[in-house]
TrEMBL record:
Binding residues for NAD(+): T234, N265
GO molecular function terms listed in the Swiss-Prot or TrEMBL record: glutamate dehydrogenase (NADP+) activity; nucleotide binding
Catalytic-site annotation from UniProt: K150 (proton donor)
GO cellular component, one term: cytosol
Entry protein name: Glutamate dehydrogenase
Family stated for the protein in its record: Belongs to the Glu/Leu/Phe/Val dehydrogenases family.
Keyword set, alphabetical order: NAD, NADP, Nucleotide-binding, Oxidoreductase
Limits of the Glutamate/phenylalanine/leucine/valine/L-tryptophan dehydrogenase C-terminal domain: 227-467
Subunit note: Homohexamer.
Pfam family, one: ELFV_dehydrog
Length: 469
């Protein structure tokens, strides 16, 4: 007993003595990163996400080495909890299928874990960890009380019948439900998880738990606890952020040409808002190729094909004159002043970034999570293209999910106009804090550093205040 007390005191003392001690920043960050590589082998996307944040943290550690103490950064890079589970379900042929489910509850220092569920065959633990890690800083940047988490499955919804989707969602939720709750962990959608899947997931949660706890998931249908603007929020928010970034350079979105990759939830509403603000969206895509439409996107047709018929972008090209479908083509070869990658991680590489720069692109904002490779971001820096990282530019989705939670908690529902105004203000603030923090650390216009540092400081200060847990 005595020796335990004694060693505790010694530990506390050593914390006090080490507090603020100058550190060799490059060496310290390299050690953190080596440890990440060693402890998380075979997870390249997670390594990539951590490397980017650590690079930005060098500016912080040079100013205040307290953040190198108390195992703070090591704790932040280690999820609080990682849940991996079997998801058995029966297909339309009566065959038993088995998928793998994940929920990584990364950091709850600011509030309940919050982050989407992704259903895509490429999903593995490393992908979910990279998304969960990004989510911590993104959620912090919104200024709302939400922690970071992410989940999903290697289930491929493409080509599945409605009944198969329902069977899968019910099986997935049968396990997930024991780990979530409105004060614990609140999942939402992501790639492959839209309104239909959230419906089946919520139904199964309600059935098992026997109560209408509508704050347990966000992205719900409007007549059972959903929020207006949640569907549009990530795409609209990305465009609002782009507007702010352009305004800082004295530029406007109207009369510019915009490329939006993808044609899912984020892409469709980025296209809608960009065109509403007077831009012309000249190209969009899916994993089979891209559509070039120099006169802009016919939104009615796009909504019909993607949201009602669940079709492909090639169907859009077939249905309308004056557009071209480029099978397996590179969308970044299209000329435009603004590019919004809104599909998936690492979809825009260094070579494509050079093509964008050669074609006169001036602004890039990530609607997707980590769609630009580190090489692409380096090209943007060298060629003076203004670049907004996803954790700032696509924060509108999760922010509006938090607004949905507020409405659920107060049993209220807000108007479209009011909710959109809240989203607009949140994105303006995300831009302000990102830009201001970049300047504070003598990196004006470096929105990667600004977003990482601003997101980090709030989480780090809360972790320091709450002790070593
Ligand atoms: P959806 O499933 O609705 O759409 C994804 C789109 O990306 C589809 O058009 C899909 O095409 C395309 N896509 C997927 N993989 C590839 C690929 N390898 N190459 C080219 N296109 C591809 O997902 P979301 O729109 O919800 O999500 C898109 C991105 O935005 C993701 O990175 C997600 O994490 C991020 N995000 C989403 C938020 C949200 O609120 N939904 C919030 C914040 C970020 P296909 O149909 O051919 O696969």
């Amino acid at each position: 007993m005595h020796s335990l007390n004694n060693s505790t005191t010694q530990q506390q003392l050593s914390f006090v003595l080490r507090k603020g001690t100058p550190v060799n920043v490059d060496q310290t960050v390299k050690e953190y990163y080596d440890q990440i590589l060693q402890r998380n082998a075979g997870e390249p996307e997670f390594h990539q996400a951590v490397a980017e944040v650590l690079q930005s943290l060098k500016y912080v550690l040079r100013k205040d080495s307290t953040y190198a103490e108390y195992g703070l950064i090591e704790r932040m890079c280690e999820p609080e909890r990682q849940i991996i589970f079997r998801v058995p379900w029966i297909d339309d042929q009566g065959q038993v299928r088995v998928n793998r489910g994940f929920r990584v509850q990364f950091n709850s220092v600011l509030g309940p874990y919050k982050g989407g569920l992704r259903f895509h065959p490429s999903v593995n633990l490393g992908i979910i960890k990279f998304l969960g890690f990004e989510q911590i800083f993104k959620n912090s940047l919104t200024g709302l009380p939400i922690g970071g988490g992410k989940g999903g499955s290697d289930f491929d919804p493409k080509g599945k019948s409605d009944r198969e989707i329902m069977a899968f969602c019910q099986s997935f939720m049968t396990e997930l439900q024991r780990h979530i709750g409105d004060k614990v962990d609140v999942p939402a959608g992501d790639i492959g998880v839209g309104a239909r899947e959230i419906g089946y997931l919520f139904g199964q949660y309600r059935r098992i738990n026997g109560r209408h706890e509508n704050g347990v998931l966000t992205g719900k249908g409007l007549n059972w606890g959903g929020s207006l603007v949640r569907r549009e929020a990530t795409g609209y928010g990305c465009v609002y952020f782009t507007q702010e970034m352009m305004a800082a350079e004295g530029k406007r979105l109207d009369d510019t040409r915009v490329i939006v990759s993808g044609s899912g939830n984020v892409a469709i509403y980025a296209i809608e808002k960009a065109q509403e603000l007077g831009a012309t969206v000249v190209a969009f895509s899916d994993s089979s190729g891209y559509v070039y439409c120099p006169e802009g996107v016919n939104l009615e047709l796009l909504h019909e094909i993607k949201e009602v018929k669940r079709g492909r972008v090639s169907d859009y090209a077939k249905a309308i004159d004056h557009v071209e479908f480029h099978e397996n083509g590179n969308i970044w070869e299209v000329e435009a002043e603004v590019a919004l990658p809104c599909a998936t991680q690492n979809e825009l590489d260094g070579e494509s970034a050079k093509i964008l720069a050669d074609n006169g692109c001036e602004f890039v904002a990530e609607g997707a999570n980590m769609p630009c490779t580190p090489e692409a971001i380096e090209v943007f820096r060298k060629r003076k293209i203004h670049f907004a990282p996803g954790k700032a530019a696509n924060a509108g989705g999760v922010a509006t999910s938090a607004l949905e939670m507020q409405q659920n908690a107060s049993r209220d529902s807000w108007s479209f106009e009011y909710t959109d105004k809240r989203l607009r203000n949140i994105m303006r603030n995300v831009f302000k804090v990102t830009a201001r923090t970049a300047e504070e650390f003598e990196q004006p216009g470096n929105y990667v550093a600004g977003a990482n540092i601003a997101g980090f400081r709030k989480v780090a200060d809360a972790m320091l205040a709450q002790g070593v847990i």
